[in-house]
């Protein structure tokens, strides 16, 4: 018999973890239990189901404690949180914002919402987040300091922020990225949508930059049904976020006066009640997800041609989505692996199409994106629900 091909080896390695069950094994399923039902019932019973009420306050306090951040503003989506964070920083028309091309589309969409233009930078091979060395080299070549602003030499536009994304829960190299941002006096923003509960050098994701955004979409590690949050230790910026995110209404006993075009981005209480329960269970989710990740890591040790992506040095990952990197790097070879997995009931997915290839971003400025281009043909996400760990016998 001939040696099994890569697709068969990958299926076998995943099956060694998940067992022989018929599946299908979805990529990531939320776990909604009695605590969630209890809080939602309490919320409904109190009558405070909309954007004010005790559950929003309790949620913001819980997230602040979890992420080690003073100020939290809960929003209706992670994308809204990211937009709000950039708007509060003063990013707008005529600016550029450096973002990773290897990310979910929301990272770049949020930049576009402000009127600014995404400027795509390359990923690091190991963290899958922005590569600080490549970013420094790129900015040294492409940018210039002018009257205190960092500008793109080619376009003349101000580089108003750098958004870092912690891919699949693995923290990016924040110290080195902060050094690059400081060299140019540009604020660093975390798209921490995927990284709730992860940490870097002992500090929680969401507390590693000037301002951060979280997501609580249905497929994230903790869900509000839909939702997000803006996190910052900067009190002035926090006040700006709160004002802009709640329609820029001036506080008054009865008058409706708004002093600028704000956004109706507040998270409703019903969603906050659901999410508070999820946040209280987060430690347990992470514990089980990390055990599942350890199983995958061990199983893929024996597969030549596919590496399991472990947490970067100095980081503790929530392992939101388990990821393998294939040694092959062509789409047809990757797709053969995906086809084999999916037809076996293992609902694996490829990484996102790099953002600079999407039609609305095709004319945006970019750094050299060769690592991103290559990784996009190599990365596959594997089923990662915390409940999968419960199927295992250990
Ligand atoms: C999920 C996600 C977001 C925000 O998504 P929403 O669905 O708007 O909550 C932003 N960036 C990244 C990288 C994400 O994975």
TrEMBL record:
Keywords: Aminotransferase, Pyridoxal phosphate, Transferase. GO terms for biological process: polysaccharide biosynthetic process. The modification N6-(pyridoxal phosphate)lysine is found at residue 220. The active site is at 220 (proton acceptor). It comes from the Bacteria. InterPro entries: DegT/StrS_aminotransferase, LegC-like, PyrdxlP-dep_Trfase, PyrdxlP-dep_Trfase_major, PyrdxlP-dep_Trfase_small. GO terms for molecular function: pyridoxal phosphate binding; transaminase activity. The keyword Nucleus does not apply. Belongs to the DegT/DnrJ/EryC1 family. This is LegC family aminotransferase. It comes from Pyruvatibacter mobilis.
């Amino acid at each position: 018999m001939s040696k099994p091909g890569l697709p068969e080896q990958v299926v076998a390695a995943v099956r060694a973890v998940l067992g022989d069950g018929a599946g299908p094994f979805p990529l990531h399923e939320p776990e909604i239990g009695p605590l969630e039902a209890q809080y939602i019932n309490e919320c409904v019973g109190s009558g405070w189901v909309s954007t004010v009420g005790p559950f929003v306050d309790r949620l913001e306090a819980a997230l602040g404690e979890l992420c080690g951040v003073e100020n939290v503003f809960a929003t209706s989506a992670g994308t809204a949180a990211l937009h709000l964070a950039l708007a509060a920083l003063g990013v707008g028309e005529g600016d550029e914002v450096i973002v990773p091309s290897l990310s979910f589309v929301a990272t770049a969409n949020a930049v576009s919402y402000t009127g600014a233009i995404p400027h795509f930078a390359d990923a690091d091979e190991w963290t899958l987040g922005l590569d600080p060395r490549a970013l420094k080299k790129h900015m040294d070549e492409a940018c210039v300091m002018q009257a205190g602003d960092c500008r793109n030499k080619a376009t003349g536009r101000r580089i108003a922020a750098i958004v870092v994304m912690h891919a699949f829960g693995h923290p990016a190299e924040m110290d080195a990225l902060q050094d690059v941002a400081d060299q140019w006096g540009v604020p660093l923003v975390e798209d921490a949508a995927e990284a709730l509960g992860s940490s870097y050098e002992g500090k929680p994701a969401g507390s590693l930059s000037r301002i951060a955004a979280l997501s609580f979409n249905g497929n994230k590690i903790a869900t509000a049904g839909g939702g997000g949050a803006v996190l910052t230790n900067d009190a002035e910026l926090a006040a700006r976020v709160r004002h802009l995110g709640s329609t820029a209404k001036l506080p008054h006993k009865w008058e409706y006066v708004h002093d600028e075009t704000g956004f109706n981005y507040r998270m409703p209480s019903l969603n906050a009640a659901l999410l508070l329960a999820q946040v209280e269970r987060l430690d347990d989710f992470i514990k089980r997800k990390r055990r599942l990740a350890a199983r995958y890591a061990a199983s893929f040790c024996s597969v030549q041609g596919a590496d399991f992506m472990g947490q970067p040095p100095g980081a503790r990952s929530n392992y939101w989505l388990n990821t393998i990197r294939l040694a092959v790097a062509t789409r047809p070879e990757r797709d053969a692996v995906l086809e084999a997995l999916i037809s076996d009931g293992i609902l694996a997915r490829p990484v996102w199409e790099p953002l600079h290839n999407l039609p609305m971003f095709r004319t945006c400025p970019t750094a050299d994106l060769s690592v991103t281009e290559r990784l996009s043909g190599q990365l596959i996400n594997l089923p990662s629900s915390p409940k999968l760990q419960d199927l295992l016998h250990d």
